[in-house]
Write a structure and sequence with these properties.
single chain; 166 residues; alpha+beta; 2 domains; three-stranded antiparallel sheet; 8 strands; 37% helix
C-alpha cells in the first residue's frame, strides 16, 4: 500500500526508514518541459493557438502540481527512541509523541469504470506531539472516506513501535 502511493519502507536492525520516492517529481518535470517546448513552438507559429495551449496546460497541470507530495524521509531509531523527519533538527524522541493520528479528507470526484467509487480522499497518517502539534508523515490516496485496513495497519505499526520504545 505504501509502495502504491510512492513510499519506500526499509527495516534494518533497529532502524526503520520510510521515504517518498522522487520518481513522480522527475516524470512530472519532464512532461512539463515537453509541454512547455510544445507551447513555445505553438506561440511562435500561431500566437493565439499557443496561448490557448498555455491555458489548457495550466488547467491540467495545476491540480497535479498541488497533489505532488514532495520529498519526505522518516528515520525511526528504535535503539535510542528517536524520530528524524526530513533530516531537519530537532530530532524528536518517542517520549515527545503523544499519539499517531489518521485523518481522511475529501479531495476530488472523478469518473472511472475501474474504481468502486467516484470519490477521492487524501488520508493523512501523522504524529501528535505533546506540544499540540500535528506532524503529517504519510499522505495517501483512497477511494473511501474510511481508511483502509492497510492504512490502519501502518498507524498501528507506528503506535506500537513508539509505545515499545518509551
Amino acid at each position: 500500500m505504501l509502495e502504491c502511493n510512492g513510499y519506500s519502507f526499509k527495516e534494518k536492525d533497529d532502524q526503520i526508514t520510510c521515504s517518498h520516492s522522487s520518481s513522480d517529481r522527475i516524470g512530472l518535470f519532464f512532461i512539463l518541459l515537453l509541454c512547455l517546448a510544445g507551447i513555445v513552438i505553438f506561440i511562435s507559429i500561431e500566437p493565439l493557438f499557443g496561448l490557448g495551449a498555455l491555458i489548457i496546460a495550466i488547467l491540467i497541470f495545476l491540480p497535479i502540481i498541488k497533489r505532488n507530495k514532495g520529498r519526505f524521509k522518516l528515520k525511526i531509531n528504535k535503539a535510542d527512541g528517536t524520530l528524524k523527519i526530513d533530516d531537519l533538527d530537532p530530532v524528536a524522541t518517542f517520549k515527545d509523541v503523544s499519539g499517531v493520528y489518521i485523518h481522511s479528507k475529501f479531495v476530488d470526484e472523478y469518473s472511472s469504470a475501474f474504481k468502486s467509487t467516484s470519490k477521492e480522499y487524501r488520508v493523512t497518517i501523522g504524529l501528535e506531539i505533546k506540544t499540540e502539534q500535528h506532524i503529517p508523515l504519510f499522505k495517501l490516496i483512497s477511494d473511501h472516506a474510511k481508511p483502509s485496513k492497510e492504512m490502519n495497519e501502518v498507524q498501528r505499526f507506528l503506535e506500537s513501535t513508539i509505545q515499545k520504545g518509551k
